[in-house]
Amino acid sequence: MKGKKILVCVAHPDDEVFCSGTILKLTDEGNDVFLVVGTQGEKGSHDPALSPLAIAEMRRKEMDLAAERLGIREVIQLGYQDGELQYANDLKETLFHLVRRIRPDLVLTFDPWKRYEIHSDHRTIGFSMIEAAHLGANCWYYRQQIAGDVVCHRSQELYLFNCDEPNYYVDITNVFERKCLATSAHRSQFGQAVDETRLRQIINQPHPDVQMTIEPFHKMWRSDLYL
Ligand SMILES: [Zn+2]
Prior knowledge:
GlcNAc_PI_deacetylase-related, 7-stranded mixed beta sheet, GlcNAc-PI de-N-acetylase, hydrolase activity, acting on carbon-nitrogen (but not peptide) bonds, in linear amides, Rossmann fold, binds zinc ion, 8 helices, LmbE-like_dom_sf, alpha/beta
């Protein structure tokens, strides 16, 4: 696959780690990847000496470095408050606008139906992005957006990461080393040296017949997307 546009939508700077091997493969093959980051991640530290402002600034730089290592074309920071993403028109309208401006062929986002997912930001960004990816084609949603280059659009394929019912696997064995390097950019979250075992635990889920490093997804099929 080449020449496609892919929108990856996450809640925090470092969430792309769930699918960064897949991102590497996509950018290597000549596709344009856009990364939407919902919040500034300013609550992502246990160090009381660090202010939320300082954490946000640090994580923005870490995100930019990781994106550079992954070959991401553009990072779009929405700047919402960490831990406070709301399933509301404000966020949905923003995501609909991005879908209609960028017009992605594929969308990757959190699986909001994952059982025992404790982070509400992960669920909220997943629910909102899935709606925008699918319903962006319906011009009666946020109709005032439609003008010029902003047109009604639906992404053809939708892949959910951090899922507990995977039905689609990407072999990232060949890019795993570079995934580790990109992950190490998030030094405030993963420390000075990335623990490869931990990283494998974050992404890996049992696959019946392979001994390779994989990233699992729940692919939503057309039958899931059309009523
Ligand atoms: Zn997160």
